[in-house]
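// run 5 | inverse folding | seed 20
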């Protein structure tokens, strides 16, 4: 004869089937409870994605020079994301591979293009010139935990020299 335990304040018998297994609802609740920032592994994955995104952003900023095509910068950013993510979380945990890579393609939006310009290699004709306002955005994910970065930079031949305001004001007046 099957006997159920007496209900006590601390016992949760509603989540145990007669055969002793947990029901699906309890499993989902446990997964949700662990899927927040109190879980150190999740924080580490967010931090890893953010660190990779920041390092790729820095490399793209350094590559912005007059004469460089936007499509080349987009490809470089995506390649750097793939290269960096291939170096982390390579050991299968519980027999499960950790997915990682680009969460948002590298976008290089120039001047009047406000955002999300990620051209195909066959169609790009945007070449940077001195004084162009370049908006960069990209995203990286590690196991679905995403780090996204964006930055606006002025294209100059000499990265140490600050951009002059006059060309930027003229460009703004034209658009």
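// decoded
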């Amino acid at each position: 004869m099957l006997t159920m335990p007496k209900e006590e304040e601390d016992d949760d018998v509603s989540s145990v089937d007669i055969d002793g297994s947990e029901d699906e609802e309890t499993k989902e609740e446990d997964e949700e409870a662990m899927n927040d920032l109190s879980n150190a592994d999740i924080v580490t994955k967010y931090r890893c994605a953010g660190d990779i995104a920041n390092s790729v952003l820095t490399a793209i900023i350094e590559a912005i020079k007059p004469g460089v095509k936007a499509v080349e910068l987009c490809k470089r950013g995506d390649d750097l994301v793939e290269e960096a993510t291939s170096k982390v979380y390579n050991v299968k945990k519980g027999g499960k591979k950790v997915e990682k890579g680009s969460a948002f393609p590298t976008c290089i939006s120039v001047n009047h293009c406000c955002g999300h310009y990620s051209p195909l290699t066959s169609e790009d004709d945007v070449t940077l010139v001195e004084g162009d306002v370049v908006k960069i955005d990209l995203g990286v994910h590690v196991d679905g935990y995403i780090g996204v970065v964006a930055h606006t930079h002025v294209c100059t031949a000499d990265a140490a020299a600050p951009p002059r305001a006059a060309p930027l004001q003229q460009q703004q007046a034209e658009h």
